[in-house]
Specification:
By secondary structure, the chain is an alpha/beta fold. 58% of the residues lie in helices and 11% in strands. It has one domain: NAD(P)-binding Rossmann-like Domain (Rossmann fold). It has helices spanning 3-18, 24-46, 70-80, 93-104, 125-139, 162-190, 213-231, 249-255, 260-266, 274-287, 295-304, 314-358; strands spanning 61-65, 85-90, 114-118, 144-147, 193-198, 236-242, 245-246, 271-272, 291-293. Strands 3-2-1-4-5-6-9 form a seven-stranded parallel sheet, with helices on both faces. It has a two-stranded parallel sheet with strand order 7-8. The relative contact order is 0.10. The chain binds NADPH dihydro-nicotinamide-adenine-dinucleotide phosphate and 3-Dehydrosphinganine. 3-Dehydrosphinganine binds at residues 152, 200-202, 207, 244-245, 250-251, 254, 266, 268-269, 297, 300-301, 304, 327, 330-331, 334. The site of NADPH dihydro-nicotinamide-adenine-dinucleotide phosphate (NDP) has 31 residues, from helix 3, helix 6, strand 7 and helix 8. Belongs to the short-chain dehydrogenases/reductases (SDR) family.
């Protein structure tokens, strides 16, 4: 070792031993940087969890498609009871007028109005746009749009008439796209609003008999997620509701041709009353929750199928994280029992057929 090298290493030692504090600024800088990174990460995690400000229904203009019957009518009543102005949208004028009378019984002040509009929400966009414009001229800009017009049909895949697949996509999916498209620009300008899509538990799981219906309800979820990402900075919140079987004229109609398998499987989550479903849906829409479910099965299904859907509260996010594995375990038992229902029904049918032949 040369004497020069010896000298430089002695100097470095000296700095480390006696002047470590010279490094203090660097250490502090590192600590501050670490804090900043942690803070930014925390902000990223927390920001989607910040709950929106609840919408005031008193004096608000609520448009309910499918508002002349069943769940839609109950939603209209629930909003009216909280002071909203209502536009009911459906095709049949007589049913609309009847529903208007029923809703009006729940007025809380004498300024409230129920407007009826007869239009097919699924056939022609320009028509839907023009009636929404008329409604806005009469009752002011739409604060909340409830897309509840819809219909269902159940049957085995090969027994469902081919044009029904198209029909259900038109009514249940496009029939929600069109009214939403007609209100969104004004909502964005006003930087406020709520959009509700009424899907179904059959929009979270595919079931025997719902090959035409389920996809039209699943589609709403894709629409809702994409739209929510676009309009959240404009303070507009989207809610997707997933009701179980609900006691309505729509369900009674569907039950006339429902396969036994579909009946037995759907019984799992029971039958609800439309008033009960409407209360939950309206509460969730007012709060701006992305997800709205009914009952314990509905809760489990929603947590299990949350995927990449937006979260609207810290508790919701935490519950999803904690329950996911447990609910999947429970789901496997449900799936097993559904498979066994389908197998048993098939065997029963074949035995009946064989007996018929023998006679
Ligand atoms: N009842 C249930 O078990 C469940 C229902 N749902 C969903 O909830 C929604 C409401 O169901 P429910 O209350 O049972 O249905 P109903 O059949 O009782 O009512 C349907 C409403 O939608 C209107 N409508 C139907 N088609 C159109 C159309 N093309 N244009 C405008 N309005 C239309 C009907 O009026 P009109 O015929 O005069 O146009 C009526 O007001 C549906 O989307 C359904 O899929 C979800 C889960 C469970
Ligand atoms: C942890 C996992 C829990 C799993 C629970 C599964 C429960 C399945 C029940 C599905 C019922 C579907 C009702 C569809 C109603 C409907 O949309 C039509 N009636 C419309 O008319």
């Amino acid at each position: 070792m040369s004497s020069e090298e010896g000298l430089s290493s002695t100097i470095t030692d000296w700095i480390f031993i006696n002047s470590w504090w010279l490094l203090l600024p660097f250490i502090m800088l590192l600590v501050v940087a670490a804090f900043i990174v942690a803070f930014v990460l925390l902000l990223y995690m927390i920001s989607p969890l910040i709950s929106p400000k609840p919408l005031k229904l008193n004096g608000a203009h609520v448009v309910v498609t499918g508002g002349s019957s069943g769940i839609g009518k109950s939603i209209a009543i629930e909003c009216y009871r909280q002071g909203a102005f209502i536009t009911l949208v459906a095709r049949d004028e007589a049913k609309l007028l009847q529903a208007k009378k029923e809703v009006e019984k729940f007025a809380i002040n004498d300024k409230q109005v129920v407007l009826c509009i007869s239009v097919d929400v699924a056939s022609d966009y320009s028509q839907v746009e023009s009636v929404i414009k008329q409604a806005q001229e009469k009752l002011g800009p739409v604060d909340m749009l409830v897309n509840c017009a819809g219909t269902s049909i159940s049957g085995k895949f090969e027994e469902v008439e081919v044009d029904r697949f198209k029909k259900l996509m038109e009514v249940n999916y496009l029939g929600s796209v069109y009214p939403t498209r007609a209100v969104i620009t004004t909502m964005k300008e006003r930087r406020m609003g709520r959009i509700m899509f009424v899907s179904s538990q059959a929009g979270q799981i595919g079931l025997f008999g719902y090959t035409a219906y389920s996809p039209s309800k699943f589609a709403l979820r894709g629409l809702a997620e994409s739209l929510q990402m676009e309009i959240k900075p404009y303070n507009i919140y989207v809610t997707v509701a997933y009701p179980p079987d609900t006691d309505t004229p729509g369900l009674a109609e569907e039950n006339k041709t429902k396969p036994l398998e579909t009946k037995l499987i759907s019984e799992t989550s029971g039958v609800c009353q439309p008033e009960q479903v409407a209360k939950i849906i309206v509460r969730d829409a007012v709060q701006g929750n992305f997800n709205s479910s009914v009952g314990p099965d509905g809760y489990m299904l929603s947590a299990l199928t949350c995927g990449m859907s937006p979260v609207t509260s810290i508790t919701e996010g935490l519950q999803q994280i904690v329950t996911m594995g447990l609910f999947r375990t429970i789901a496997l038992f449900y799936l097993g029992s559904f498979d066994s229902i389908v197998r048993r029904c098939m065997i029963q049918r074949e035995q009946l057929k064989a007996a018929d032949k023998r006679e």
